[in-house]
Design goal:
The complex is a heterodimer of chains A (92) and B (136). With 92 residues, chain A is an alpha+beta fold. Chain A has helices at residues 23-33, 54-60, 77-87, and strands spanning 9-14, 39-44, 47-50, 67-73. The longest helix of chain A has 11 residues, at 23-33. Chain B is α/β, with parallel strands linked by helices. A 4-stranded parallel sheet of chain B has the order 2-1-3-4, sandwiched between helices. The model of chain B has no long low-confidence stretch (mean pLDDT 93). The chains are: A alpha+beta (92), B alpha/beta (136).
């Protein structure tokens, strides 16, 4: 799984300590994911959510400081993962 | 996925003005400020109930823009929306989608979809996914 490949790109990122993946941060993440054509996922605690579905992402219940696994497959997967990996630590 | 004339809006129909207003506030926080939200909550005198005239007015205003997803709580809200649909022109009806979804979760899902440029039909479909997403 090389990050230079556009298939099945994956990266682990950490939420800020004070920011759980609730309402507003989850909305920001989903809107960012929706800008990409790739299928994008957020993994947490052994579960994987469709990063373009707000209800799916909220159901993960990821607390502040949690490690999330961002993954994607498809045309712009690498760009999607890179973008979200930069976004997650900056969520507020 | 680009809707003409900006984002699709939400019409929230509830028996309670407070439910509709509170949900509008919550939805705006999650989906951002780009999605217009119109509420039609409560009866004409402000008590619990529905105001068919206001529901029609809200749907007509929404149909004049980029289109709208309508979300309802239950009972006479559904009847008011059905009655309003019967009043709208065929042209207006092409820009209105009623979501068969739970009100809170559906509104959030529809608004986030609308904020990403979804059409009213796509946003309504996102709302309807709420029926199959587990909470726990």
């Amino acid at each position: 799984m090389s990050p230079s490949s556009d298939l099945d790109v994956e990266r682990s990122v950490r939420l800020p300590e004070a920011v759980a993946l609730h309402a507003r941060p989850a909305g920001a993440l989903v809107r960012a994911a929706a800008a990409f054509a790739a299928e994008v996922f957020v993994g947490f605690g052994g579960r994987r959510a469709n990063a373009k579905s707000i209800l799916d992402v909220l159901a993960l219940g990821a607390e502040g400081g949690s490690e999330l696994v961002i993954s994607a497959s498809g045309k712009d997967a690498a760009a999607a993962v890179e973008h979200l990996a930069l976004l997650v630590p900056e969520l507020a | 996925m680009d809707a003409p004339n900006g984002h699709v809006s939400l019409v929230l129909v509830s028996h309670s003005a407070e439910i509709a207003a509170g949900l509008a506030e919550m939805v705006a926080q999650i989906a951002g400020p780009g999605v217009p939200i119109v509420t039609a909550g409560g009866a004409v005198d402000g008590s619990l109930g529905t105001d068919g005239g206001r529901v029609l007015e809200a749907m007509r205003a929404a149909a004049a823009g980029a289109g709208a997803v309508v979300l309802v709580d239950l009972g006479s809200s559904v009847l008011s929306v059905r009655a309003a649909l019967a009043e709208l022109s065929d042209d207006e009806l092409t820009r209105i989608a009623v979501a068969d979804a739970p009100l809170v979760e559906g509104a959030i899902a529809a608004a986030v979809a609308a904020s990403t440029g979804a059409s009213c039909v796509e946003a309504a479909r996102a709302a309807e996914e709420a029926r199959s997403v587990a909470k726990l």
